[in-house]
Amino acid sequence: MSIAKLVKIQKTFFHTGTTKDYEFRIMQLKKLQQAILYHEKEIIHAVNKDLNKSEFESYLTEIGSTLKELSFTIKHLKHWMKPTRVKTPLLLTGSKSYIYAEPYGLALIIAPWNYPFHLIFSPLIGAIAAGNCAVLKPSELTPETSTVVAKIIHNTFPEEYITVVEGGVEESTALLKEKFDYIFYTGSTHVGKIVMEAASKHLTPVTLELGGKSPCIVHKDANLEIAAKRIVFGKFLNAGQTCIAPDYLYIHKTKKEEFITKIIENIEEMYNQRLENGEFTKIINARHFERLQSYLEGHQIRYGKDRDETTLTFPPTLLDNIKWEDKIMQDEIFGPILPIIEFEQIDDVVKAINEQAKPLALYLFTESKEIQQQVLRDVSFGGGCINDTIFQLATPYLPFGGVGDSGIGGYHGQASFDTFSHKKSVLKQTTAFDFSVRYPHKKHSLSLIKRFFK
Ligand code: NAD
To answer: In the prediction, which pLDDT does 361 show?
Structure first.
């Protein structure tokens, strides 16, 4: 079926009103839950073939996280759907004010390859919960997962409700030509601009979940033992191909050597075995492998085992004495290389970060409340952690998204429902009486109105 026809049949289906019922939405969410559980092994197998992800990592970051989002949404949907009554000013005595969450209509969801299952299903949960129809476009760089995603969707939902269009730039471009009611895009900042430009032609609202260079700062008073463990986990998870991975490390000069030793100990403890067993997530393709290799040129590698181009295995690697002028600091790394920069004054760190595009995440390790406050006040970033990495996205109570170059909008938990819902404001007026002063021809009405607006 052509993309134009697909959009047409979804539009017709949406206007039947079927997707708006609470019972319908819940049933679809439960069907999705069952389908994911049923295909669990296939999903793990596909993600492993695409990215060499271990079963543990696949479950944690692809399946488990999606199931958690589903169960949370199922539990709270009734409450979220209720119209919210808000106050009404004295001027409008006799009326009541409500905010209704209504579905936008047709949602287009475009996903990247780094968490190829989770990043397509997680926004879909929000789209279903809010009562929309949806077209999904998985990444072409993870073809095995794309096939499983398409199979799950085609076996679970009729295409006039939810469907998948597989393919790459060509298919994405064709989809973007159509008029959708909402576009939810996850991927690079560069393509995010293309998506927003296409959306502007139809005045379609967008959520853009983009990337960037997320700083990780370790101050001299930090608990170094814990910081090293949490940074190594967050940086090398998925071989560093995580949008909110710490991109680079700022470490206080007086603690640098001690901290690097701890970082190396943790890398060896967490990943040596996996590397030996061939279970370390691979780099997505040769182009990205070469891009990452090029960051090493001209630098002495502080730590890092041999890379293997044939299997695209790129072990955790540390680069020391890095400066902002270095090639590795010009773009998001999106791979398992951790550049290390030392600092003496936190003010210098804040200044340097603020000279860059606003990051998607920021991680700060310190026991000092003053430094926490200073960084939170003075640096704008999508979201982040104090004394941890990555886990800001593990709670449905925190909206997840970027700011500036790292994105527009947010999702997870109720924020997903809100993202895919238009908030319709309605004033319900009484007809029991009618204040004459509101009409222009009445005597004294101007002076009375002036009193009300004071
Ligand atoms: P990408 O932008 O290359 O591709 C993402 C999607 O866009 C794919 O489905 C692709 O087919 C499509 N696409 C690519 N080029 C297009 C074009 N010219 N026109 C229309 N569609 C196009 O991104 P990627 O390489 O798959 O993902 C990596 C980036 O995504 C990183 O920057 C990372 O930080 C970011 N990311 C962000 C989040 C987040 O939640 N904020 C999550 C994961 C990844």
So the answer is: 98
